[in-house]
Amino acid sequence: MKQGCDIDAHATSRVSDCRMVVLPVHAHENGNLSVVENSGTFPFAVQRVYYMYDIPGGADRGGHSHYHCWRYLLAVSGSFDVTLDDGAEKKTFTLNRSNAGLLITPGIWLTMDNFSSGSVCLALASDLYDPDDYVRDYGKFLDLTASKRR
Questions:
Q1: pLDDT tens digits, residue range 45-56?
Q2: Which sequence positions are flagged as catalytic?
Q3: What's the predicted TM-score (pTM) here?
Q4: Domain span at residue 121?
């Protein structure tokens, strides 16, 4: 577990804690604008921004959880599915609107698939990249979330 974290989010986070967050749209005849600011849009300050693109047909992304990091995923172009798993419940969301994304708490396993041609996934994260914050083995994830299935 990441140093400084007293509670392992894997034991407490639920799929129901994750939610869609719709960004405001400033509509204009020359195109729309949506803005994310570190002033209350999310329960975290954005520390890292990355995006996934040129994803081959049939490819999957994700396949991990985090001890500490929050994420917000947005389909800025195209569409894809995100399946969230808390060890006891799974739920799939289809992201296909450039102003509506998925807020994901720490401790939730995610997989992404069904990417449309030309899709782009923008990710905003609460933390800088730290390989020690990842759980990449699903068996270990199930061990960390075992208390939810008792």
A1: 999 999 999 999
A2: 64
A3: 0.91
A4: 9-23+48-149
